């Protein structure tokens, strides 16, 4: 799995991604990223594209989860 963050243009609804919520420390090693399907894409930000998942959680995409 690459550490390349996707751009907002590369994301689509229904894509499974790992996100961190805005109030989490992105640099912190003890934060578990949340995994879910994209419902809404808000746009690119320095922390990564901001999205809302289908479960209602909003955060910044860290990576796309590829089907193995």
Task: Indicate the topology.
Elements: E1 16-20, E2 34-43, E3 50-53, E4 58-64
Antiparallel strand pairs: 1-2, 1-4, 2-3, 3-4
Organism: Natronorubrum halalkaliphilum
InterPro entries: DUF2196
Pfam families: DUF2196 (PF09962)
Summarize the structure.
This protein is mainly beta.
Write a structural description.
Helices cover 0% and strands 38% of the residues. It has 68 residues and is mainly β. The chain has one domain (8-24, 32-64): SH3 type barrels (Roll). The protein starts with 15 loop residues before the first strand and ends with a strand.
- Overall mean pLDDT stands at 86
Question: Rough shape?
Answer: globular
| Topology, number of strands | 4
CATH topology: SH3 type barrels
Portion of residues in beta strands equals 35-45%
What is the CA-CA span between the terminal residues? 10 Å
CATH architecture: Roll
Radius of gyration: 11 Å
Reading side by side through the largest sheet, how are the strands ordered?
A: 1-2-3-4
Largest sheet data: 4 strands, antiparallel, barrel
Total separate domains: 1
Q: Approximately how much helix is present in the residues? A: under 10%
Query: Secondary-structure element order, as H and E?
Result: EEEE
Helical/strand content category: mainly beta
What are the main properties of this structure?
68 residues; mainly beta; SH3 type barrels; 4 strands
């Amino acid at each position: 799995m690459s550490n390349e963050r996707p751009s907002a243009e590369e994301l689509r609804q229904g894509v499974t991604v790992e996100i961190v919520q805005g109030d989490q420390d992105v640099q912190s090693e003890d934060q578990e990223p949340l995994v879910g399907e994209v419902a809404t894409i808000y746009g690119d930000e320095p922390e990564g594209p901001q999205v809302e998942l289908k479960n209602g959680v909003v955060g910044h995409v860290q990576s796309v989860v590829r089907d193995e």
